[in-house]
Amino acid sequence: MQRRQLLQLLGATAVAAAYGRSAAAARSADHVVVIGAGILGASIAYHLVKRGAKVTILEKSAPASGTTGDSFAYLNASTKSSSRPYYELNARGMAGWRRWQLDFGGALPLQWGGAIYWRDEAAATEKLLTTLRTVQEWGYPARRIDERELHDLLPKASLGRVDGAVVYEEEGVVDPVGAVQVLLDRAKSLGATLKFPVEVTGIDVAGDRVRGVKTTEGTIAADTVVVAAGLGSQWLAQSLDVKLPLVASNGVLIHTAPQPKLLDSVVFAPASTIKQSANGRIVSSSGHEGSSDGSDLQQQGQRILANAARYFPTLKDAKIERVSNGQRVLPQDGFPVLGYAPKIGNLYLAVTHSGITLAPAIGQFATQEILDGIAPDSLAPFRPSRFA
Ligand SMILES: Cc1cc2nc3c(=O)[nH]c(=O)nc-3n(C[C@H](O)[C@H](O)[C@H](O)COP(=O)(O)OP(=O)(O)OC[C@H]3O[C@@H](n4cnc5c(N)ncnc54)[C@H](O)[C@@H]3O)c2cc1C
């Protein structure tokens, strides 16, 4: 290497190191309070503390005890084909999970087995193929498969009639509770404080600035407050006159006792959605994230199991350990609410459906906004101000 090149390289490294140090040092006194220890709070806290911020996470119940604990946790962008910006954000979320896999090694309970869909009648197939074509045009790895390949991919399945099938090769699933645990453990090892059960009962504001939060354990001062409180976010926002409309929506899932290995992929059969976690447990719903029909939850669970057993007969006698009736965190227009609250300079909102897929991207973007003052273009369609 020429001497001049070497000096340039050393100079660039020194500048980068100095910038990194001064950026971190300038912000190291900042205290960020994150409300909520679901997947979004855990992600944002992890990203912030990794960058040197002083972080306190407050959780009113226990980590992952909200919507996150009842999530199907399918990591995908293919079901977001109605909006290109939303699709792009989800694709970034998926890439973020791969980045996290490098950060955490094998500790994250992730499976990248792809997703397999098939349909048994023409109208449903047409819908499936419309989605496929849209996301393929956007560059997503996906393809139509024939019945023989479907059999090869799911050798233990009893497929029934197959009208059309597709595979999304880079999609995956995660155990959301295990992932929150991994994120919070790392955040704590980097210096974050996690307090639970501590409920935030109010936000302390002076003029257009938040000064801290009122909690069941007294007032805690903060330079920035992040509201990642899932369903609890609406009340917290409204207490400051910030509009954050959510709509009620639920999804019933069964969680079985561990089963012998059946699946590597997440399966979207005509009447059932099924995944098998690394620990062998089957998680299933009727339809994608199926809604409750209002009847007895245990009976719904039995019907969900019967639907899954249509396609995987060995599941017929599987023991259901839990039937969950998860409440989605669903903004009124279906899209994420991300960014500073209108008129309040240091109150950051992170509220969304598909929060498992999106968590790594939201953690990264929120941290850049809070610590670097950057407003990423990708978040422009998702600002809280659209409800103001
Ligand atoms: C049935 C179902 C299936 C789903 N499937 C998928 C899927 O396949 N893929 C996907 O990406 N997403 C899926 N989702 C959506 C995803 O699970 C959620 O978007 C995500 O879990 C939201 O995480 P969160 O951290 O925002 O909220 P939560 O997990 O609810 O966390 C918020 C936390 O804040 C705490 N809290 C609330 N108020 C306060 C307060 N005042 N003080 C202190 N703490 C407070 C709560 O106790 C809670 O622990 C699904 C959701 C459901 C219900």
Notes on the structure:
This protein has 388 residues and is α+β, with helices and mostly antiparallel strands. It has two domains: 28-110 and 171-246 and 329-388, FAD/NAD(P)-binding domain (3-Layer(bba) Sandwich), CATH 3.50.50.60; 111-170 and 248-328, D-Amino Acid Oxidase, subunit A, domain 2 (D-Amino Acid Oxidase, Chain A, domain 2, 2-Layer Sandwich), CATH 3.30.9. The protein is built from nine helices and 22 strands. The strands form five sheets. Strands 6-7-5-16-17-18-15-19 form an eight-stranded mixed sheet, with helices on both faces. The N and C termini lie far apart (58 Å). The model is unreliable at 1-26 (pLDDT under 50). Bound molecules: flavin-adenine dinucleotide. Flavin-adenine dinucleotide is lined by residues 35-41, 58-61, 65-68, 70-74, 199-200, 228-232, 236, 251, 253, 289, 326, 328-329, 352-357.
Which superfamily, in CATH terms, is the homologous superfamily of the largest domain? FAD/NAD(P)-binding domain
Number of structural domains: 2
Categorize the overall geometry. globular
Annotated CATH architecture of the largest domain? 3-Layer(bba) Sandwich
Q: Output the strand order for the largest sheet.
A: 6-7-5-16-17-18-15-19
Radius of gyration from CA coordinates: 22 Å
Range of helix content:
25-40%
Distance between the termini: 58 Å
Residues in β-strands, percent: 25-35%
The average pLDDT score comes to 92
Number of helices: 9
- Write down how many β-strands occur, each being a DSSP E stretch of 2 or more residues: 22
Bound compounds, each kind once, are: flavin-adenine dinucleotide
- Unreliable stretches (pLDDT < 50, length at least 5) are 1-26
- What would the CATH topology of the largest domain be? FAD/NAD(P)-binding domain
**CATH C-level name of the largest domain:** Alpha Beta
Q: Major sheet: size, sense and barrel closure?
A: 8 strands, mixed
- Secondary structural class: alpha+beta
